Amino acid sequence: MTLAALMAVPVLLAVLVHALGPGGRTDAVPERRRPDLSGRTLDGRAFALGELRGHPVLVSVWASWCDPCRAEFPLLAGAARELDGVRFLGVDLRDAPGAARAFLAETGAASFPHLADPDGRLALELGARGVPETFLLDRQGFIVDRRIGALTQDWIEGHVVPLLTP
Amino acid sequence: MTARLAALLLTVLAGVALWRSALGEPGPAERVHEIAASLRCPDCQGVSAAESSSQMALSVRAEIERRLRAGQSADAILDHFRQRYGDWIRLSPGVDGLSALLWILPVAALAAALLPAVRRRRGRGASAVLPAVPRPGRRGLPAIRRRPARRAPNPPDAEHPPSAGRSRADAVPAVVLLLLGSVAVTGGAVAVWASGRIQNAPVAEETRGGGGDAAGRARALAAAGDHDAAVRAYREALRQHPDDRAARYLMAFELVRSGRAAEAVALLEPLLATRPHDPDLLLVVGTAELTTDPARGRRTLRRFLAAAPPGHAAAPRIRALLRSSRDLPG
Amino acid sequence: MTWGNLSKGGRGGILASCVPPGGDGVRVIGYLGTAALWAGLAASLAAALTWPRARSRPLAARCTACALACAALAFVLLESALVTHDFRIGFVARQGGRDVPLYYTVTSLWSALEGSLVLWLLVLAAFAFAAGRHRSRRAATAGGHHGTDRLQRIAMTTVMLVCAAFFALTALAADPFAAADPVPADGPGPDPLLRGHPLMGVHPPLLYLGYAGLMVPFGYGVACLITGRVEVARIRAWTLVAWIPLTAGIVLGAWWSYGVLGWGGYWEWDPVENASLMPWLVATAVLHAARARSLRAWTVALAVSAFLLVLLGTFLTRSGAVASVHSFTRSAAGPALLGVLTAALVTAAGLIAWRVRRPPSDARPATAPLLGSGLLTALAGTVLLGTLFPLVADLVLGERVSVGAPYFDRMVVPGLLALLALMGAASRRRQRLARPVAGAGSSECGRGLAWPVAAGAATVAGLGSTGRHSVTALLAFGLAAFELAAIAARLLDPAVGRRRMGVLTAHAGVALAAVAVAASSGYAQQAQGRVRVGESLQVGGYDVRLDGVERQAADGAMTAAARVVVTRHGAAVGVLRPSLAFYPARGGSPVARPAIRGGLLSDLYVSVSEVDQDGAAVALRVAVNPLMSLLWASGGLMVLGGLLTLAPTRPRTSPGSALLPTRPRTAPQPASGQGRTPSEAPCESEPSSGSANARASEAGGASRPRKARMP
């Protein structure tokens, strides 16, 4: 018993030393998976993710009540204008349609489709932790990367742009 | 007797009541709650999806309800979430692999602790019959090993002068303690060193910023008021992580403070071309330029005001500054 | 502090340095504060060096007092810097704010790591001082011979080394007095969650008192291990001194989270909560193991590990090692804390391995203390395992695993129920002491417990017939009824001494807490949804109607309160204002301020999670939580019980004489010194009261009953 206790001390310390290190794997995608996103867009037409197959897709989960989303959307809208090979898709989480449309008009991100997600089903299908959150899908529709929290220019340059040059 | 009879009767009734409640089927709302309680709320900290009223927790509950109504089993629903979120989403790990330890260890430890108790209880029955003769070697229980046998009869009182043997005996704990102390201090130092090394390892962009690396040292130097040394440290930090914009800005800031505003402008000017609307960048460049080229600095600060999001804490002061210097050219 | 430095605190500073030269006067407070920390380190080291020698005792006592003075000076300086908004001090620049109300300015000292270390130092040094002084008074009554000093001198050395370690840690890795650079014009104020509830001023200091207090039993434990001489009474007494504020701190912490976190719960098995529960469980185990001579080695090991768990918990929660997805802060004090923890852990493990041996198998057990302390220790171990497991999984598998409430509920709750049963059974065991007839024990015991068993069973059977209940809740109610009945029957006995009364009171507190926890977790009713003005939610007979939204800006916060009118069965109950508060200077998301209408039988708990821009609708959550007041009251009972046990009984059974029976050297015994002879064991196997002298007072004043039985 004493021996076991003595063994436990170094093990415990190793665990603790390790715990102090970077724990930054929160953004990792748990499983290679093709999310099934389909539903009605904010302007009322039917949409399925399959329509965008063949292109990398950047899926942004957002809501008009989320302030960081408001801050990141100009960047997203700019990227949507500049990055030709990438398709963009919004998922509007549990939002009032009127407020959501006003949000898009204000941030200039109405150029790409936005799926309405009134009960959060689509966000859960993606595996989103909250808003804002961005998922990067490859040409086959598999999730290859994600970003929890607001998008940054660096992240787009480091993660999205490489997908464009196969 | 009546008391015991009543206790017996009531215990039987209580057993029946417990049995019945164990057999009861939970209603649909309870089942949703039960499943949600075993899932983590995706967008909160340490709260289950059953308790939180965050948007994602509401979504999780709605999804569970939808799937239950579609006839899915609880396990299938849990699997559905696990596929999308990984094991992280389950608040209670499964009984497979390493997680099995989590369930087995406490039970095993309790059993290991209580087994001697049960055994000893039996031993007591026996020893009550035996005459209480102290058997040397297996006596008593204190189980604290007492090294020097000859020390025991000596009460530690002052009237017993310490003999030579006793002081030698006293030296044993001292030596052990000294050894142990040095081992402990070495261990502590090793732990600090090892964790420092881990902290210095290149980490994901969000987790950077702990003390210890060049940037951290630079910040410490800056806090200590040694701006030149801070600039040198930031330069080193930038060599390690050239894309660390925060370090670049802070270095420019330190340059301004050590009177080298021109260098600060030169450092940040190239960045300004690629990020013309970064308010923080404009702010630093503008304040630096105020020393080198006041007119241009005011222009840059005006651009800052235009780019700054409403409510930026520096905006009112910059506005006041620009207003007070309006009569100057530029 | 990478980006925030520039984009938050830095802005004022950039201007201050470039435009008008910021007030860069002499930072007297800052230099004094840092100097106090270093002086405290020097004084602690000096005390640690002087305590071991009996002759340098007065000097050692003076050094200890000096360390306390340094800690107090640092505390006063930091507090005054906070109150006077001296933003040149780094800590004030990060945690202070001009529009924070005075009360929360004072409490903001312990709202971040550096400041809480200063409070922690003050409490540590105060305990060290008290532990050093306590000794001198005792020595005076005992005639002042040096031999009995030894244990305490070694304990004090340990204690002062711990103090020195924390002074060094604060001065080197987390100096709150470091200059703020740049000096801001105003600070962001403490975290929004930490300035919304008056308990903020009470709960953390009490918790720290408990944590720091466990340092003294740690010191005595180490001293016992070094000398090989066990004085359980002192370990027990100091553990009790720490246990009382620790208990109060934990219960108040639960109350605080109930009133602040806004989701209606009070315990979530969060790492921070677990970090406070583990030392409590082990300290409680110490108090129970200390009752039995056969568990003396165990008591020492537990006393040592209680403080190790405090250190471990501090490390886990303060270094960011177990932070969640949303917090990326890693304090610079992490490695230093780990260093202190490692040193303490290695020392303790080495000493225990060196000294403690497995007891021989023919040892005479004391069943109730053994079961009680064993169960409590196993529970603490389970909580530790669950708290550390995510870290282990991360190291071994590289996976993120969660261990949360469902795990702890399944593993810990059965143990707690078993404890209830044990406490009930142990309450009646005194019956046997009156007639110590060999062989008749179990039946005597059975008769003593018949009525309590009947009461518990009747509760289960009666409740079971009223509808659906969960098995756990039924068991909790039944076992609590059993325990309370046993305690009540025991209290009828007029010969119950004060200490025994304290033990029973504390046990009754635990039983009532079990009832309250089972009721509030199993029988809460709630409703939530979006409510427009004029609409209402109905829960448990209450009707909660949204009357309007009130907005205001005060104390640095922008508040949106939902004014709700509450009626019950048509009768007006009152108006509540749950609100959302946003602190622009601090940023982040708004925090919920629930409104609670407390009642004897149930609380009405209303919180808002969203308020529409136009103020026409809010997301409302209404809950009726039963027996919450009982939960807080039960915490009070536990503390009261502890205080009763702590209070000295009659002068005849002063602590000095209490030590005698447990000190083996005073007893004539064979040379090898393996402890007491078995012949006195029957006395121990009847766990009765908290300690030998309480038993003595109950038995009619024979101050040393054990000695009377010596062969």
From TrEMBL, chain B:
<dbReference type="InterPro" id="IPR051263">
    <property type="entry name" value="C-type_cytochrome_biogenesis"/>
</dbReference>
<dbReference type="GO" id="GO:0005886">
    <property type="term" value="C:plasma membrane"/>
</dbReference>
<comment type="similarity">
    <text>Belongs to the CcmH/CycL/Ccl2/NrfF family.</text>
</comment>
<comment type="function">
    <text>Possible subunit of a heme lyase.</text>
</comment>
<feature type="transmembrane region" description="Helical">
    <location>
        <begin position="100"/>
        <end position="118"/>
    </location>
</feature>
<dbReference type="InterPro" id="IPR011990">
    <property type="entry name" value="TPR-like_helical_dom_sf"/>
</dbReference>
<feature type="transmembrane region" description="Helical">
    <location>
        <begin position="171"/>
        <end position="194"/>
    </location>
</feature>
<dbReference type="GO" id="GO:0046872">
    <property type="term" value="F:metal ion binding"/>
</dbReference>
<keyword id="KW-1133">Transmembrane helix</keyword>
<keyword id="KW-0201">Cytochrome c-type biogenesis</keyword>
<dbReference type="Pfam" id="PF14559">
    <property type="entry name" value="TPR_19"/>
</dbReference>
<protein>
    <recommendedName>
        <fullName>Cytochrome c-type biogenesis protein</fullName>
    </recommendedName>
</protein>
<dbReference type="GO" id="GO:0017004">
    <property type="term" value="P:cytochrome complex assembly"/>
</dbReference>
<keyword id="KW-0408">Iron</keyword>
<dbReference type="InterPro" id="IPR005616">
    <property type="entry name" value="CcmH/CycL/Ccl2/NrfF_N"/>
</dbReference>
<dbReference type="Pfam" id="PF03918">
    <property type="entry name" value="CcmH"/>
</dbReference>
<keyword id="KW-0472">Membrane</keyword>
<keyword id="KW-0812">Transmembrane</keyword>
<keyword id="KW-0732">Signal</keyword>
<feature type="domain" description="CcmH/CycL/Ccl2/NrfF N-terminal">
    <location>
        <begin position="7"/>
        <end position="126"/>
    </location>
</feature>
<dbReference type="InterPro" id="IPR038297">
    <property type="entry name" value="CcmH/CycL/NrfF/Ccl2_sf"/>
</dbReference>
<keyword id="KW-0479">Metal-binding</keyword>
<keyword id="KW-0349">Heme</keyword>
